[in-house]
Amino acid sequence: MAIASFAESGADLQLTGITKRFPGFTAIEELDLTIPAGSFFALLGPSGCGKTTTLRLVAGLEEPTAGQILIGGKDVTSTKPFQRPVNTVFQSYALFPHMTILENVAFGLRRRKLGDPVGKAHEALKLVELDHLASRRPAQLSGGQQQRVALARAIVNRPALLLLDEPLGALDLKLRRQMQLELKTIQTEVGLTFLHVTHDQEEAMTMADTVAVMNKGKIEQMGAPEELYELPRTAFVANFLGQSNLFTGEVVASGPDHIAVDVAGVPIVVPRTRAQRHAGEIAIGVRPEKVSLLTSAPLPESGRNVLGPGRVTDVSFSGVSTQYLVDVPGVGELVVFAQNMVFGPVVQVGASVWISWNADHGFGLDDDPGVVPRFVPDASTESIAIQRRIALEEELEQA
């Protein structure tokens, strides 16, 4: 049986009607997704949402219950993993400890009997800036360096599609941020298609051209990182991709440019173009960093929303900013992020404050306002059993 030929450039990926059912549990349901060739695409979501199952289906490690998988226009739904122009970088680097770094990277080329494996391995190591360590063994490298070797070993084969399964999860914060930038640079240089699966929102927004937020086996919203963050369509996206202050209320005024929503007797203005619904009872929101904290009641100002007075219930220092929790009667607890421009918090717990924001920074959701959904971790026994089985299979495959 022929081994897949590897590409000089990325290929597009198309999933059509993909469904994956396990006994007593549906991981993915009627998933349609197209990833353009040469793009950096992130599949983002919490544990149990189906993102890792999607990656395993693309890699050929799982078979779909229904649907088609096409890579570069070719149907690979029934082909074996080694027949697909795909490589995977896992969170665990799975390097051969008895081989040098150069031998690790050249291993796949030699196995496929491709020409000049050593020269190509050196090129791949230069790309990740580790060629000077080619003679070392994995145990002599740091975690970040081992991750780069695993990446070099994957891209040296020139796969049309590179799958990244939580590849930076084992790194510390500083190394993770450094690798995020390096991965994006490498993807741009080699021109391959990257599919990155992660639960880390910052990671997805830093690296990806397009992000798809996945929830319970379906894509909740897809678009450019800035679009998803600034204009979430559902409460799930608004709360999973960062934090949001969400309100529900009746639309009490509607104009060509804005709508006004009654929130505890206060008309809150939202741009019409930033709202999914424009009549009846709707859900609206604003990001915590868009909100200002005021110690006295502000004068009415066109284009600004004000709620208060409220009482500060918690103050949390987080380095670049301070988080304030403010309990506003009739509204609930709101979150405010204030950049640390001075030493110490601006107000203390128990202080009476008002919160204000530019009306143009608000957004309206498409959710039914009666029950604004919040993320509930999927801790069902079926889900836990499946995740454990997947982990065991990966360990066996890497052994």
Short description:
The strands form four sheets. Strands 6-7-8-3-9-10 form a six-stranded mixed β-sheet, with helices on both faces. A five-stranded antiparallel β-sheet has the order 13-12-11-14-20, with no helix packed on it.
Annotation field: number of helices: 9
Mean pLDDT: 86
Structural class based on helices, strands and sheet pairing: alpha+beta
Number of separate strands: 20
* The CATH homology group name of the largest domain: P-loop containing nucleotide triphosphate hydrolases
Helix content: 10-25%
CATH topology-level name of the largest domain: Rossmann fold
CATH class designation of the largest domain: Alpha Beta
What is the second-level CATH architecture of the largest domain?
Answer: 3-Layer(aba) Sandwich
Strand content: 25-35%
Compute the separation of the termini in Å: 23 Å
Task: Write the H/E string, N to C.
Answer: EEEHEEEHHHEHEHEEHHEEEEEEEEEEH
Quaternary state, please?
single chain
What summary fits the major beta sheet?
A: 6 strands, mixed
Assign an overall shape: elongated
If you compute it from the alpha carbons, what radius of gyration comes out, rounded to the nearest whole angstrom?
24 Å
Count of distinct structural domains = 2
Going across the major beta sheet, what is the strand order? 6-7-8-3-9-10
Unreliable segments of 5+ consecutive residues = 1-6, 373-384
